[in-house]
Amino acid sequence: MDQIAIIGGTPLQGEIPIGGAKNSALKLMAAGLLTDEPLILTNMPRLADTRFLGELLRRLGAEVVESAGPAGAQTRLHTPEITSAYAPYDKVRQMRASFNVLGPLIARTGHAKVSLPGGCAIGARPVDLHLSSLQALGAHIDLHEGYVYAQAPRGLKGGRIEFPFSSVGATEHAMLAAVLARGDTELIGAACEPEMVDLADCLNAMGAKVTGAGTPTIQISGVARLTGATHAVIPDRIEMGTYAMAVAMAGGAVRLTNARADLIGALLTKLEEAGVAVERHGDGATIRRDGRRLTAVEISTDPYPGFPTDLQAQFMALMTLADGVSVVRETIFENRFMHVPELARLGADITVSGGEAQVRGVDQLEGAQVMATDLRASVSLVIAALAARGETLVNRVYHLDRGFERLEEKLSACGAQVRRIKGGGEGEE
Ligand code: UD1
User: Would you kindly state where each structural domain of the chain is located, as residue ranges?
Assistant: First the structure.
């Protein structure tokens, strides 16, 4: 298994291009199952997760072709017919977003058998809201031996779906299923993340009738069939936020391009409060920190437009060297502090109590061997390592590869001392 070795202490200078949003791309790929015509997705990230979902889609009957297009990497999905409506355990266990094929499979074929998901170990992460949404659209659902068996032999029908709290995945799943349902659907209490808007834009380009995406109420008028389309994936706000914090940690000045600063307003405001200079541009932002120490600030994760849970670990890493005590509250997932013991190995002073972490800034971190535990936690270790004295070795970087494209290349191009050690480190459990 690969390791990443980082020698801290070099300020970052230059430019980092931001890729298409992983979380959006995965749901857009699932949308490819909804039509027998080609769906072309541009600005696609090339990640372990997108490759992995591509394999599952092929198994279901899709032709998935990756190529270099005029607007960056693109993926052409073409599913003339669904040849199998079965998503097995080994394909869904490794990545939770695979579960989102369930809705499109029922919508297109009237039945499906899909394994219950796994994904990052950041809490229980049930799928009850996904299933109740599909039931509200008329699907008959049975659970046996870890599988969802769904039936809607006469097709799905529109319905009213009220979410008791915001769920990104369930809102997307409901949209993916309702676009081909007979009649109208209303989603109340829908997630408002930018990925909802991206999915709705793509579905509408395919001939769907979705309005209100990005607000808590989404209306969908079902259509009989969808067509092919070409759609550009929105920039990855989590990747952008992560590099913004890498610069804030290491110091220096980096322009983040092909990105949208408006999608991470909550983070940029906190960075400014902490003493980081942020210059917003039409295609991203320049992040700058001189030698001065940052001030500790508090954050609480929340659904969009609040502070994203996917940036919490990185922000905590940043606060380990700030002046004062920072409180980091996690309100979305109940077990998302697995990076804390690893940050402590680098010398961070953090105490966790329930969903709250107190981070007491220290003067210096020191390089050590650490272990990536989930996708966002692993990149928080990279950020901490950029400012640590000496060398940090991050093990289990397959977590990083799931969500960060060419991470070591992008950081090295800005002067960071980062390299990948192929096949180094411990074996897989
Ligand atoms: C998505 C993102 C993930 C991000 C999260 C919150 C993808 C691939 N992943 O995950 O990176 O951290 O949004 O922004 O897009 N819940 C239930 N029942 C359900 C569904 C969710 O109880 O049926 C709970 C979850 O356990 C969690 C909360 O709802 O506590 C929010 O989860 P949700 O917004 O659904 O996250 P995901 O879609 O899994």
Answer: 3-17+235-421, 22-232
